[in-house]
Specification:
Layout lengths: L1 H4 L13 E3 L6 E3 L7 H21 L20 H4 L21
Antiparallel strand pairs: 1-2
GO biological process, one term: spliceosomal tri-snRNP complex assembly
GO molecular function: pre-mRNA intronic binding; U1 snRNA binding; U2 snRNA binding; U5 snRNA binding; U6 snRNA binding
Protein name: PRO8NT domain-containing protein
Length: about 100
């Protein structure tokens, strides 16, 4: 449950959190609770919803997913081979109008 809470949200490029590992490496726990101000969090998700609707309308990065996503005979993906060396994507930023969106 804490792992899902600590996944980076679309406006964050990277999210670091303290973790606790089992000595065998079999399990990892997130030792941190995300602290957010609720109105700010809701405003950020509202902005992301608008940006994702625009992106979906323009269809630049959205693709239809085939189901089932994994075949039973397909070997599991290795984190070190497939994900470790990949740079994270840019965080989603809304382009603001300087005249309309002044503080």
């Amino acid at each position: 449950y804490k792992l899902l809470e600590n996944i980076p949200v679309p406006w964050q490029q990277i999210r670091n959190c303290r973790t606790v590992y089992h000595c065998s490496g079999a399990i990892t726990f997130c030792a941190e609770v995300q602290k957010v101000i609720e109105p700010v969090y809701l405003a950020q998700w509202g902005t992301m919803w608008i940006m994702m609707r625009r992106e979906k309308r323009d269809r630049r990065h959205f693709k239809r997913m085939r189901f089932p996503p994994f075949d039973d005979e397909e070997p599991p993906l290795d984190y070190g081979d497939n994900v470790l060396d990949v740079e994270p994507l840019e965080a989603i930023q809304m382009k603001l109008d300087h005249t309309e969106d002044e503080p």
